Amino acid sequence: MADGMQGVDVDYDGLIPNNVGLNGDERLKKALETWHPGYIDWWKDMGPEGFQEALVYLRTAVSVDPKGWAKFGFVKMPDYKWGILLAPAVPNRTIPFGKHKGEPVWQEVPGEYRAMLRRLLVIQGDTEPASVEQQRHLGATAPSLYDLRNLFQVNVEEGRHLWAMVYLLQKYFGTQGREEAEELLNRRSGHEDNPRMLGAFNERTPDWLSFFMFTYFTDRDGKMQLEALAQSGFDPLSRTCRFMLTEEAHHMFVGETGVSRIVERTCDAMNKAGITDPTATAQIRALGVIDLPTIQRKINMHYPLTLDLFGNEISTNAANAFNAGIKGRFREDKLTDDHALLDSTYPVLRCIDGQFVEQHVPALSALNMRLRDDFITDAAGGVGRWNKVIEKAGIAFKLTLPHQAHNRRIGEFASIKADPTGQILSEAEWVARVDTFLPTPDDAAYITGLMQPVHGAGDYASWIAPPKAGIDGKPGDFEYVQIHE
Amino acid sequence: MSKQHLIDPEICIRCNTCEATCPIGAITHDANNYVVDATICNFCMDCVAPCPTGSIDNWFHVAAPFSLDDQFGWTELPPRPADGPTEVADALDAEAEALLAEAHARAGGRARAPATASKPRINLFNRANPARATVVGNRRITAPDAESDVRHIILDFAAIPFPVLEGQSIGILPPGTDAQGQPHAMRLYSIASARDGERPNTNNLALTVKRVQEPQPDGSVLRGVASNYLCDLPMGAAVAVVGPFGATFLMPDDPDADIIMICTGTGAAPFRGFTERRRRTAGAVRGRLMMFFGARTPQELPYFGPLQKVPPAVLDQELVYSRLPNQPREYVQDRMRRRADDLAALLGKPTTHVFICGLRGLEDGVEAALTEIGHTHGLDWPSLRSTMRAGGRYHAETY
Does ipTM surpass 0.90 in this model? Predict the structure, then answer.
């Protein structure tokens, strides 16, 4: 066995499948087994509503080695094997950035960074159960069994990501970690008194278009955060996040293809009906599909919410985390600068006295913005592919990402109003035009009306095209969820 | 012609998982596409399972490989070459592919995997990079005095991931060289255990191996290289394994599927895997397993003892013997005729699958019996067989 295979084999016999040698750590094992019943209770209370007994064709990660990475099979969700899986250790890895650059990575938490690390873990961990809570009613209106299965796959993997963060809290943060792990099960998305920590994770996910937008944009924020944490000098965090990223890719896939299939269906229906004007809303909606401007308005809502998750434009927290070697940049290992950033600057679009100003600010304090810019580039790729679908159908319409000042609630742009192209508006202008930017009550009512469950194997709702390929190579009429007893 | 690994740009979402996974840097990207460098890719398949979209699983037969620049420019895959396979390959290894093609040659047409079968992993280990398994079991499963020496051999993979499905095969590379100084040819053996090992959650698999020793007309004895190598292995010995292989002869996952299994001798191996799988998923299963299993005598029937302990509710078994003293010879096709009503009822259902595995020639007897049963029960067997084969419900693997 090569050295690189250390930590690859997964113990599946115990209550908690893991490749972290849980059996050899009685204290941790007991802590996690004590936490487990609370987790299952949370899943049953706040997980997908109404389908806990259904057999769902799910992927379970069974190894961190790509050769044996995952298996597919029918499982009832409460029986899903949520485990603790870390990517294989990289031998002789050193801290890749910050003031400790070049030192051996930490296998234990350095005392001076305990508080900082704990907070990062709790924030990341809090988003995982939050999204499950946000999506718990969607099963009732799934446009197909295929989509229902994808929703549940996303949900169980968010559950596993909670496990991943709880493992780190329980293993490395003692009593405090244990308390934080409990709190992760107690907060509730959208709850008045005890909400989740970040704004976007307290928003409702009222319909499937919102779900696809959320998995496309907001889970992509998750990807960027995981990419940055995967660079961490705290090796257990790096290994955890590296493995989570392979799962996160599926969530991105659900969002990107979900929107793409809606766009495809709309274009197809328009062409069949001979409608060329994408703004002929009434005619298009009469076809039972979602008109492209409504999809644009949904983008205008979800994208800014996600930009808000990156925090303030200028941030000392981000600078400290980088300097400490705790949280790096997107694909830090592929960047070729000095990885210390003490003397460099980064251009940031700021809002000063109500006007946009591009400023070169110290690169360390602009790390949130740098990650946000990487996110914007990444997010633009899928929008480009949606536009290809529209272009291929010969329809004159283009979806766009709105300007970063549009519809913001956090950061410097929160103080102004801007339209999706970045024109600064007065309050009165905003009120007059907001219905053309953001989803209206009419849009919501129309979409809600479309949300009727489709449960026939191989059948799809009127407003979404079938996928190009099945999950796990399955044929089009595969019964991904067996709802019957 | 050579094989080339390609990514379907229409389905790919550019998530970077493949590039991050590839152990040898064969995958790269530009602003447009993720692509595989044909000069580097060694078909190790590491990138296939983690891909969330399925876009990664494309294998073209090409006269000249597409360059990186070709691939960067694509918005969709080029048309598949007309003479290339349109179905999933059983193996990407030419040696294994030829062996499987030969074994499947008499199914009457190209086989398809059952619609509900799990997606198989193939070709994870090859001659250049075999998996090293350890023998953790090797016992004779025919009677000590029987002429036929058939063994149940368990290979353990320790920490090496070696994911298999019931019905797949592995390749064994006997050490040493032949008379021409070439490495011995690969031999394929069907996996005789369930996907999760001999016991649930063990990383091992079982083989059913018959020691080949046939007297020749000149008085010598032909001794099979691989079978004798395997049968003689002591506990703890290391074995070089390649594969897994096979993408069509696979167990359906549908809990409602009825499965008719017809075999002789070591052809029972995959059906032991099927039966074990059904035992472990018993809670969800409603479909039936029906087996016709032929040997010369009970003493020579592999797994005779264990089969006596399988409850009829799990497996409806017909053990058939052709050399019982003072009894007329009976073959599987004879017993199938006696169960004509049951077989006809099963064959009339759209969820029934037929699997045949054993010595070459078995299909002919089965074919005759099923045609006859068809006549008496109003089924046009030849056309039904074509329908079933096209739907992934008829499979034959003989050697």
Answer: no
